[in-house]
Amino acid sequence: MKSIKTRAAVAWAAGEPLKIEEVDLAPPQKGEVLVRIVATGVCHTDAFTLSGEDPEGLFPAILGHEGAGIVEAVGEGVTLVAVGDHVIPLYTPECGKCKFCLSGKTNLCQAIRNTQGKGVMPDGTSRFSIKGQPIYHYMGTSTFAEHTVVPEIALAKIPKDAPLEKVCLLGCGVTTGMGAVTNTAKVKVGDTVAVFGLGGIGLSVLIGAKMANAGRIIAIDINEDKFEIAKQLGATDVINPKDYDKPIQEVIVDMTEGGVDYSFECIGNVNVMRSALECCHKGWGESIIIGVAGAGQEISTRPFQLVTGRVWRGSAFGGVKGRSQLPDYVQRYMDGEFELDTFITHTMPLEDINTAFDLMHEGKSIRSVVHF
Ligand code: NAD
Ligand code: AHE
Ligand code: ZN
Ligand code: ZN
């Protein structure tokens, strides 16, 4: 097989709009797969990396990690997928063999993590180039391209009747939020929950909390436009920290007779992470960090908060093992257990992808889905 030409949105430099380019894509090598991306969501993490705040950010790169597509070709030795399979690329792969996969304790497969973080395939090179200049991969997925190459361990095979332009959101946002509730926090019936940040991630936490039959579900955002949809998805209380002249953690502790059982930070703001921890109930409350904070930022609290029983934890891709567990999320969506339409506030062709970033920054979208 020869190289192909494809279309992609290229991030040439931090802080600059993406540029639509014709890109050369080398054929999939051993263990790799060529995927035609049908649709991709735009997650805040793409904007985070584009902003230059990501310590692993590399340029020029093809961003995007919330996609869905169809296998067009496979490299030597590929056995996990075949041409024609419908797939969701996984930024958290699942090799099934590494210490992490075998631990039974985490979804953070490390088989290809080093090269993934360096913007290249496991053999240390990129498949993307423009006029001979290599373009970096991103999160091992690079879904802002009509065609991408992905290691086979980084593909979840999904049913062919799943609508790719919707289930692409399960490639990151919705799975991350729902999974954080069930796998990381393990919210139980009647538990009190606080969700900070009502974007794609926070709203998916709401879906998970409602499904877990949590009791009170407090949704917090500084953009009140998010409150209506939060209520639709199960929030019992919606609050804006700007309406109070005391720290929001104190407001929540007062509202809940001592604090919540679980809180989720879905913003990436280290000050809010502190509030999310400190609104937890003394003795047992757990706060789950989902938001991604910029280079050099650190979290802080009085150690006494932990001494007195509050727990700080984190969650990546909702603790979900992509190849073995993501197909089940797709099936549950197909069975009508939850819906995705509410999340898709905007759709657009690849050419208009920068609008998706503008809408996100203006607080006007939940998810934009880009089609090719
Ligand atoms: P988003 O931009 O759609 O939503 C963020 C929300 O936070 C917005 O509604 C915004 O109004 C609100 N917000 C901002 N500042 C606030 C503040 N000070 N107080 C209260 N609300 C505030 O983003 P998203 O796509 O939902 O992603 C959320 C975060 O989760 C990002 O940091 C993203 O990088 C991260 N993320 C992490 C994972 C993971 O696996 N850990 C996966 C996906 C996304
Ligand atoms: N590259 C950043 C960290 C970015 C990060 O935390 N990514 C999350 C997924 S966000 C998806 O929207 C993640 O899965 N992290 C685990 C991992 O191995 O990257 C940095 O700070 O260097
Ligand atoms: Zn994401
Ligand atoms: Zn592994």
From TrEMBL:
Domain of life: Bacteria
SMART domains named in the record: PKS_ER (SM00829)
The enzyme's E.C. designation: 1.1.1.284
PROSITE patterns: ADH_ZINC
InterPro entries assigned: ADH-like_C (IPR013149), ADH-like_N (IPR013154), ADH_3 (IPR014183), ADH_Zn_CS (IPR002328), ER (IPR020843), GroES-like_sf (IPR011032), NAD(P)-bd_dom_sf (IPR036291)
A GO CC term attached to the entry: cytosol
SUPFAM superfamilies registered for this protein in UniProt: GroES-like (SSF50129), NAD(P)-binding Rossmann-fold domains (SSF51735)
GO MF annotation, one: S-(hydroxymethyl)glutathione dehydrogenase (NAD+) activity
Keywords associated with the record: Metal-binding, NAD, Oxidoreductase, Zinc
The Enoyl reductase (ER) domain, residue ranges: 15-370
Cofactor: Zn(2+)
Pfam families: ADH_N, ADH_zinc_N
Alphabetical list of Gene3D superfamilies matching this protein: Medium-chain alcohol dehydrogenases, catalytic domain, NAD(P)-binding Rossmann-like Domain
Catalytic activity: S-nitrosoglutathione + NADH + H(+) = S-(hydroxysulfenamide)glutathione + NAD(+); a primary alcohol + NAD(+) = an aldehyde + NADH + H(+); S-(hydroxymethyl)glutathione + NAD(+) = S-formylglutathione + NADH + H(+); S-(hydroxymethyl)glutathione + NADP(+) = S-formylglutathione + NADPH + H(+)
GO biological process: one example: formaldehyde catabolic process
Role played: Has high formaldehyde dehydrogenase activity in the presence of glutathione and catalyzes the oxidation of normal alcohols in a reaction that is not GSH-dependent. In addition, hemithiolacetals other than those formed from GSH, including omega-thiol fatty acids, also are substrates. Also acts as a S-nitroso-glutathione reductase by catalyzing the NADH-dependent reduction of S-nitrosoglutathione.
Family: Belongs to the zinc-containing alcohol dehydrogenase family. Class-III subfamily.
NCBIfam families, sorted: adh_III_F_hyde (TIGR02818)
Protein name: S-(hydroxymethyl)glutathione dehydrogenase
Gene that specifies this protein: frmA
